[in-house]
Amino acid sequence: MGLKKTLAAGVAASGAALFVITTAPSAGAAQASPGAAQELTCLTSSENLTGTVGCRNNTNRAIAFRAVVTCGWAKDEYGEWKTVNPGATDTSKATCAPWSTGVGSVNWEEG
């Protein structure tokens, strides 16, 4: 086998192995239950030091949620709890401390 064919085969084999390694879920990866993912439909956004979550309730019962904002170099912040009636939408915000490096991520917590 020529050098080009050998090199191509080696690259293809290592690429396939790399693909398998990078796409396999980690042992500690959390799996959401199928029903939980459809109770609230939420959109997140951030601007400077503030993270915002807007959620719509897709159920036939009231659900409470709040924004959870991860702040760089400061403590994480939590928005006000909002209770959303069936079919309704509401927004929760939280702002990072002025000395933080800003919003790292925005998520929500149901309660």
From TrEMBL:
Signal sequence extent: 1-29
Keyword Signal (UniProt): yes
Keyword Signal among record annotations: yes
Alphabetized UniProt keyword annotations: Signal
Protein name: Secreted protein
Source species: Streptomyces spongiae
